[in-house]
Amino acid sequence: MSKKKVLVVDDEPSICEGIELILTRAGYEVKKAYSGEEAVRLAEHEAFDLVMMDLIMPGMDGADACAEIKRIRPDARVIAISGSPSGARVEKFIRSGGIEVYLYKPFGKEELIAGVEKAFTINPL
Predict the structure, then answer these.
(1) N or C: which end of the chain has fewer CB within 10 A?
(2) Class assignment of domain 5-122?
């Protein structure tokens, strides 16, 4: 059985690296993107089973990037991650479609793994 592929998108490199470390140890294949634009470019060339998308980023925000990735890869599951979930941005993200799980920063290893497993359970391969 091949490893499930996860794309982690956050403009904070330390967040991406921490998630990558935890998920790699848990048996997932992980790629990182540091902007919405970079995430969309990666999704154009490669399929991911799960996208972990930060809500608030400079340039293309998480909601717009998520909507574009779901257009390109409709089967991708999405976990929204944010440190400041509030108001119109959250609503925009939810409307972008296909959000399986929402994680609030800071989250720990157990919460991260549980969120990933939940995303795959909600919408199994």
Answers:
(1) N
(2) alpha beta
